[in-house]
Amino acid sequence: MSSSRTQVGIVGGGPAGLMLSHLLHLKGIDSVVLECRTREEVEGTIRAGVLEQNTVDLMVETGLGDRLKREGLEHHGIELRFGGRGHRIAFDELTDGRAVTVYPQHEVLKDLIARRLADGGDIRFGVSGAQVHDHESDRPSITFVDSDGTEQKLECALVAGCDGSRTETRKLIPEPSIRTDHFRQYPFAWFGILAEAPPSSEELIYANHERGFALISTRTPQVQRHYLQVDPNDSVDNWSDDRIWDELHMRVDGEGAEIKDGKIFQKSILQFRSFVCEPMQHGNLFLAGDAAHTVPPTGAKGMNLAIADVYALSNAMDKFFTSSDRKMLDRYTETVLPRVWRTQHFSWWMSSMLHRLPDDTGFGHRRQLAELDMVTRSIAGRTLIAENYVGTPLA
Ligand code: PHB
Fold this sequence. Notes:
By secondary structure, the protein is of the alpha/beta class.
């Protein structure tokens, strides 16, 4: 077994792991990222695509903003659509000029990987069997098999568990003696498509309709991303292109909106869940991103929350390495958890306000329409959505 050493061993090369490695590098701290997928898989996986103002600012400030500024689409509002009419939430007016940027997660990952490699960063793709040892001591290590089949041992001072919702690192926090998992399943899922078509709308449309929720999003002027609420047990094979477009038209078209059809080239079903594990630390193991929490996609928060975690974690790790002071490290959970739960609430709230509930007798839908009416007619209500959608400043 060959052995190497670094300051921070990072399990997982998604947004949390790669951004953590990048932020640590800027503070002069070494890390190694272990990722089980190949670089091509990481860079090719289609995920959500909305960056909060905080995420954009952090990328620009840390030298990751070139392509983002060129290719990202800045959005200054969204439309909530119900009762056949659109109601704009104007971020610029309601949040002092803050905005979101549509820039897909895999593009963020491409930028992060390119930058880490240009900076001499150590990312091991295609590793298997990563196992963390002795994370309760001050000499943790990670064993794994690299892409050549060689057994490796990585010794480090701190370990970050950034290995996504199918995490192995979370399991190292004993449950239930130390760890509590908070979990909520939803009786719906999203059917997502990518289509070659012109944009249907200048801004994202979140539509509440009796037939179910629909979301009109975008990727580029030529490629659009749309979603339809479906049953969690539904299958992609049940949906012909015509059926998808018919359903999108029925759920969204109306006053001021008309969906533009095109050629669908990608279809997938996304499951919905809310999840938080507490605490997010055990000894010298720190969880970040989906390894610690999952949000339903309605608030467009998943990647942004992962970035907020590692922003706080990188500052705490910096304090530890520069002044041997672990107070910030040991307060990591307390520092990030309020944002995690606010984001859980926002994502749950947007989801519950906009989706059709399967056994609704009609009361639920009327109640949702009243809630949407109440929120959109009030400046306070619109501000609440806008502030949370663009994201509250990083702590
Ligand atoms: C997306 O474009 O993929 C997207 C946009 C907004 C959401 C979720 C996903 O709330």
